[in-house]
């Protein structure tokens, strides 16, 4: 992805100059995913790093681990219920 940003910077308007194509057509043309998909992937990677201990973050501050092993596996996580918008939409 870094190479893509450098390429865009070097090519400048020549790369983004074709405004006749829609956003989805440009993504297909260059083989990219949508911004929403990239953000979701980044969030999943961050949760994985928290879960495996690669970050210096306490997992219990953000998620609640499953207390039962009746179905599936014991690695299930739940997002705790919050009532304030500040806590609901804040991550990190």
Could you characterize the architecture of this molecule?
- The structure is a single chain.
- The protein has 92 residues and is mainly alpha-helical.
- It is 48% helix and 4% strand.
- It is built from five helices and two strands, in the order ααααββα.
- The longest helix is centred in the middle third of the chain and has 18 residues, at 35-52.
- The radius of gyration is 19 Å and the shape is elongated.
- The mean pLDDT is 75.
Primary descriptors:
92 residues; single chain; 2 strands; elongated; two-stranded antiparallel sheet; mainly alpha
* Helical percentage: 40-55%
What's the story with the biggest beta sheet?
Answer: 2 strands, antiparallel
Please list the strands of the largest sheet in the order they lie side by side: 1-2
Low-confidence segments, given as residue ranges, are none
Number of DSSP-assigned strands: 2
H/E element order: HHHHEEH
Q: What's the Cα radius of gyration?
A: 19 Å
Average pLDDT: 75
Treating each run of at least 4 consecutive H or I residues as one helix, how many helices? 5
Terminal residue distance = 23 Å
Q: What would you call the shape?
A: elongated
Task: Tell me the fraction of residues in β-strands, as a range.
Answer: under 5%
Structural class: mainly alpha
Describe the structure concisely for a colleague.
With 92 residues, the chain is mainly alpha-helical. It has five helices and two strands, in the order H-H-H-H-E-E-H.
């Amino acid at each position: 992805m870094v190479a893509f940003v450098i390429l865009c910077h070097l090519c400048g308007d020549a790369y983004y100059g074709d405004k006749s194509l829609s956003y989805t057509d440009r993504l297909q043309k260059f083989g990219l995913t949508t911004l929403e998909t990239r953000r979701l992937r980044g969030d999943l990677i961050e949760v994985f790093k928290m879960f495996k201990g690669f970050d210096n973050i306490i997992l219990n501050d953000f998620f609640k681990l499953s207390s039962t092993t009746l179905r599936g596996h014991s690695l299930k996580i739940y997002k705790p219920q919050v009532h304030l918008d500040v806590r609901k939409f804040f991550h990190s």
